[in-house]
Each structure stands twice: as structure tokens, then as C-alpha cells.
Amino acid sequence: MKWYEIISRIDRRIIYLLLTFFVVLPFFIPLTIPQNIMPQTQKLFDFIEAIPQDDKVVLISFDYTPQTMPECRPMAIALLKHCFARNLPVIGVSYDPQGPGLAVEAFATVVDELNAHAVTREDSLVYGEDYVYLGWKSGRIAALLEMGENIKGVYPRDHFRNAVDSFPLMQRVNNYKQVAIAIVLAAADYPLDWIRYPQTRYGVKVGTGLTAVMAPKYYPFVQTGQVSGMMSGMKGAAEYEKLILDKGYAKELGTAETGMNSQSMIHILIIVFIILGNIGYFFARRKKSES
Amino acid sequence: MKRLLPLAVCLVMGIVMIVQFFSPHPVSLQFNSMILKWVIILAAFAMVLAIGNLIRHHGIKIQRHKENWPFSIVTLASMTGMAVIGLFWGVEDGSLFQKIYLNIFAPLSATMFALLAYYMASAAYRAFRAKSLEASLLLIAAFIVMLGFMPFGQYIHPQFPAFAEWIMRVPNMASQRGINLGIAFGAIATAMKIILGIERSWLGGKE
Hints:
A: alpha/beta, Rossmann fold, transmembrane helix (chain A), membrane (chain A)
């Protein structure tokens, strides 16, 4: 077998083995490569940074799934840390049936971490006062539109079956007029529904945190201003982690940073394999045309 | 009558809801709110229907010992088990429901999805060949975006990440906008056809 045939027919088991090796490697040899911040991530950070305290709430729609957790969970954690550090109340909702379990986990992770360092009652995060998770609701588009009139009409009870009216936070939130921005963390086209319906009708500001494969579709909406900021894939999450770390809202970088190192390694590996495959292909083609 | 009534309801409600969208009158808003509540309730009923269908499908599979029928037992037992645990023991952080979700369902789902990376790497190596000008352009653009979006990208050239971002913001955005407009026009045309009764496949059955 000629050398160009060898490099264009590498056994897939070798590819799988190398892939596993390079995914795991950054977990044992940490790399610290500075992140360059993309404009759309900066826009989202700046938007939340500019929300006045004791005014409006931040609404986060947890619509990611376990499959896309490595990309979207760090976004959720970083966003929650940012909002809570700025004393911005957060209301969580979900329209993907797989979302609630992950939303509860994300809230618990951040709240437990921040409350562990709290000294006074004012420093602590209290459910119903600083944050609420309303849960999943069927009939997504209808629910999104109806929330523009009355959020409590759509969610009379929260995810844990408590009456929403009993929460001090929900007593001052009636509809989108009290929402500064709705940020949709998703692996599917959920943000499009937010742009099409509540934004068109009620003018609600929309931000997104999307998987890398979804992000290209939303660039036109960022350009028109319909999306006020976007985290794109694991890179977007790592950028947001860096932004909140630099501002002093977090003590250390999150899991997206390590994930980015693994992802970068894999991208380089894939590029190397594609180049090898193409070199083999060109030489084989040349040999064929010569003969 | 069986076909005429749904068509009439569709026509009337379609036109009413379009007109309502542009009317800020309190009566119009109240009507909209009522209809939206109906839709949310109807969507919940659709879920009940879906669960019923799932039970029926897998029940028949188990009863007739069709291929892979033991997996149907797992499906039904998992669905019933999770529903009972969630209903009676709650869904709070630290609850049994949450523990099962985070420690069994989430890793299983993530593992299935992670396998995709292996297939993608293998498929990219085998199929991503610069066989034509278009394929070569795609290959070059993919390399630039992949390298530019990596933290390493800035070491190739300080402007390299900005160039990758430009590809996403200009050529990508232009094509995405074209696709989005095409989809939007298609959706408007389909909606009009349904409202006016030209498109009747949603009624089911034969014409």
C-alpha cells in the first residue's frame, strides 16, 4: 500500500482513540489560553451590566437538554452569578420538557455556592424574593404571548407547586413590562419564538445562549438588534465566565474554560485528519490520471 | 358537515386572530387572553393524548411479544416510575426525582450525544474532500472559523479571530437572512392556504 493510501485510509478505531485521548488530556494538563471576547457575548454582558438595580427582573428560559449541558450549563451558571452579583432578581421558566431538572440544578448550584459565603441575611439569596423558578408549561407560543398580559395567569403555581402570589418577587412582576430581558438558553429554535411573538407584540428584549451549531442562524437577529446579545456555544460560555471573573463577580473560571481546551484540541485533530485525507486524495487522483 | 365545520372555524378564527393582533382595544386584548388560555389547556390535552398513545403502542408490543418488546417494559416502567416519584415525593433539588434525573437520565443522554463526536470526526476525515471549487471554499471557510473560534486562533495572527467572526457576520448572515426570508414567506403562504381552506391535509383522511 502506498503512503498516500495509508493516510487516506486510517482505521476509524485509531481516530476514536486519539479523539478520546485529546478530550481527556486538558483535564490533567490544564492550559490557560486567554479568551478573546466576541462582540455578541460582550453585548449581552453589557446589557445585564446596564440594568438598574431594584427595577426590573431578568427572565431566563432554561430550554437546554442533558445532551447539550456541556455548552449551555456553564452559560446558565455564569448568567445566574452575574445577575445575583448585581442584585438583579431572576425568574426561571422552561418550555422544553427536559429543562426543569437542569434549571433546578443550575439554581441550586449557584445559590448554594453564594449562600455558603453569605454573612448576613441581606447577603443571602432567598427563594421567592431573589429568584423564582416557575417551571415547564405546555403550549409554548400561547404561553409566551399570554405572559405579556399576565405571567401569574400562565403560572398560578411555581415548579414546586407553591402559589406564585405568595412570593414577594412575583407581587411586583405582572407581565413583560417588569422584565428587563428574557434570555433563552437553548439547543433548539426556542429563541425564534421569543423574537416572533413576545418581542413583536410586547417589545420584550431577548438575549440568547445557544449551542455552537445553532448560533449561525441567529447572527441576523443580533445585527438587527432583535437579539440584544448572544453566547455562542462553549466559546460563548467561556467568554462570559471570563467577563464575570474580570469584573469580580466570580472567584474562578467555570467548566467552559476546561471544555474549550478539550474542544480546541479536537478541532485541531479533526483539521489534521481532514488535511491528511485530502493530501492522500490528491496524490491518489494524480497517480490515477498519470496512469 | 364533518369537514365544513372545522374549515369554517379555521377561517373565522384565523381572520379574527389576525385582526385582533393589530387591535389594542381592551375587549380585543381580553379575547386574545381567553383564546391563549384555551390553547395552553388544549396543548396539555394533546400531551395526555400522546401519553395514551405511547402506552397503547408499547402495551400492544409487549402483549404480542414483538421485536425488542422487553425495551417497551423499560419505557413504560420508567415513565410511570418517574411520574409517581415526581407526583408523590416532589421535584425539589435533592429529591429522588432530581437524583434519578441528574444521575441516570442526564449521563445516559449525554453519552448518546457524545458518541456523535466520534462519528463526526470519522465522517469529516472520510468525506470532507476538496473535490470541486465549492467544496474547497467550504473547506477553507470551515478551517478559518474553527481555528478563529479557538483560543489558539489569536496566535496564528492577532486579526485571525476577527476574520473568522467576519465570515460569520457577513457571508453567513447574508445566506441565513435569505433562508429566513424564504421560510417566512413560505409560512405566510401556507398559513393563508390553511385559513382559506385551500390546504386541507390537516383535516386528515381523504379529500
